[in-house]
Amino acid sequence: MTAKTLLTEALKKHFGFDTFKGNQEAIITSLLDGNDTFVLMPTGGGKSLCYQLPSLMMDGTAIVISPLIALMKNQVDAMRNFSAEDDVAHFLNSSLNKTAIDKVKCDVASGKTKLLYVAPESLTKEENIEFLKSVKISFYAVDEAHCISEWGHDFRPEYRRIRPIINEISPRPVIALTATATPKVQHDIQKNLGMLDAKVFKSSFNRTNLYYEVRPKTSSIDKDIIKYIKSRENKSGIIYCLSRKKVEELAELLRINEIRALPYHAGMDSATRSANQDAFLLEKVDVIVATIAFGMGIDKPDVRFVIHYDMPKSLEGYYQETGRAGRDGGEGQCITFYAAKDLQKMEKFMQNKPIAEQEIGKQLLLETASYAESSVCRRQLLLHYFGEEFNQDNCGNCDNCLNPKKKVEAKDDLCAVIETIVALKEKFKADHIIDVMRGKATNDVKSYHHNELEVFGCAEKSDERYLNAVIRQAVIAGYLDRDIENYGLLRVTDSGKAFAASPKSFKIVEDTEFNDEIEPEEMNGGANCAADPELYSILKDLCKKVAKRLSLPPYVIFQEPSLEAMATTYPITIEELSNISGVGAGKAKRYGEEFIKVIKRHVEENEIERPEDLIVRSVANKSKVKISIIQAIDRKIQLDEIAASKGLEFNELLDDIEAILNSGTKININYYIDELLDEDQQEDIFEYFKESESGDLNDAYKELGNEYTEDEIRLMRIKFLSEMGY
Question: DSSP 3-state assignment of 677?
């Protein structure tokens, strides 16, 4: 019987499959032959089988080093389902008590266990090292191997200790597996694991069934997500958020809008987390709202959509998370909401990290921003990032390809970019090159005397966004190269030098401009995606009329996003009106009657069928956290102390206080403001908001920002709204 036949029979016997997928057979053969093996295979490609099958065929126990407890539990359960014996697979991590650990070690020592999943932290414990020295080990599998690299999206320092520990226990063949690795990360993994001579197997990163789309993140994001999910009834989906707080809030919002959803994040107790994960896998709920802690290795084939509420920190993370959609080859919609300020916030969070780590983090964020803002085929951008070429002009399955922008000639601009990079001796990143080309004499530019170069100001009429698009698309075309190992320094390739010597047509599509917030008056003659611009205009006029009668600015009555929501969902009762974001029970009761009458009359006169199924209900604002904030403010506890006790950033606390205010609860924070600002300063800001038409914070920052901080302006706006509106 041939080796190939033996392998196919083992596959059928243990897993019930008739054939291998992709490179699986060659990978398993390499490992059975005793070779170190490196596997780069996208999510859904069948990585786990590459070590599960050989573990069952070889003598001894395979040690699988895995980063997440949830991942281990899921994979051990899966292996036990394929086997008649529960002791075929075990895991060893911090979730086990002493009795359970003793049972695992007993099964391993007896030779019954073929797969032992170990957390890297558990692998480093002396008692575990001593135990494993006594075990016959078949091979080591390092799963999610990108965790080894500082350039990977989920770097874990303890992963860098794996090789010395393997050497101490018992050197055996190593198989390293990851779904996301740029060429730089791959080299880092192999070097750190001492397997530079490993047999390397790379599968294509192209998931043709996945649809990629990036949308601007606006104030209507929650409503947009609810409508999107309701249009895909009973379909499974994952929503990723960066903060645990947002995970909890969004899951609750979905539930009160009759969407079966549960939260998942590392701050939950392990029993609840496991129960929520199982509920999703067993289809008791349709949607999981999660931080990135969810999904690594979760084998659910029919996830139909993956939504990113926040843009991820890196393209590796983005690719892996979107890769959880459509693993069965069916539909997989990957929708991402993008705002540049989210990435700026992430960059701020890096400030207390080592400089080298900050630089790596910034470079990864830049790549993410480039992907989000570019109008080029998203599939082409992703594949290029992972070192794979995609030569089609139109993939037909991303937002940029389905709605292509007109191309513009950029031959001269590329020549100018190449000339500037050469003049700067290929030692600078894109932002510095663009500053020089636009003639911006920044401190950095002056310190290198680059303002004295001939190329300084050679593209002074071009904007930053356009030049960024030229550079990004020249990298994809192979004229420029971004030196990742040197934090993104730009070099001119041989093709680029040939282009400069003999220029030819170079057409590009300009990047998409994302506004962090689309104001209501920018769209539909006044209403941001409103179903009824006419009603929006009527409500706006009514708001001004009520405000004039009460001698208040209109935004104190209802802010424009609230009017826009009314014009979209047509609330005709006080209860429905109180569910509108920014209204709440208090304002609905105080000002709502006139608005309800106008909306009701408009609905009847125009025979409008109200979309009641799409009326987005808001979470009751007086949740436990908000009630405790109100109580703490009543006791005059300092706001920074309240924020610290709730685990909130100060601006997040102000978000909550504004939400409390919008729900109709008066808030008195004078005790805190009085310590920050004297009477004249308070009056100065108060008068500004009294005269302001919109009460917009960004306008206030521009007007008052030289004299006051953003926090001081926000605090005074809260004081103003509380005193004038209630």
Answer: coil
Dist CA 384 CA 472 (whole Å): 11
3-202: CATH architecture: 3-Layer(aba) Sandwich (3.40)
DSSP 21-64: -TTHHHHHHHHHTT--EEEE--TTS-TTHHHHHHHHHSSSEEEE
Give the list of residues 6+ apart from residue 489 with CB closer than 8 angstroms, or none. Answer: 426, 427, 428, 429, 482, 483
Integer Cα distance of 635 and 562 in angstroms: 31
Q: How many Å apart are CA 273 and CA 267, to the nearest integer?
A: 9
378-385 helix and 464-477 helix, angle to the nearest 10 degrees: 60
Nearest to 209 by CA among 42, 19, 25: 42
Please state the domain extents for the chain: 3-202, 210-343, 408-508, 520-614, 624-725
Confidence of residue 526 (pLDDT cuts 50, 70, 90): very low
Q: Which two tokens stand for residue 502?
A: 């003999």
What pTM does this model have? 0.66
Which residues, 6 or more positions from 72, have their beta carbon under 8 angstroms from its beta carbon? 66, 91, 93, 117, 119
Q: What CATH number has the domain spanning 210-343?
A: 3.40.50.300
The single residue listed with the structure tokens 């500082």 is 150
Q: Give the count of beta carbons closer than 10 Å to the beta carbon of residue 708.
A: 21
Residues 322-339 pLDDT 10s = 988 998 889 999 999 998
Domains 408-508 and 624-725 share a fold: yes
**Could you tell me the CA-to-CA distances from 474 to 150, 374, 387, 468 in Å, in that order?**
27, 13, 15, 10
Domain 408-508 of CATH type 3.40.630.10: no
CA distance 79 to 48: 10
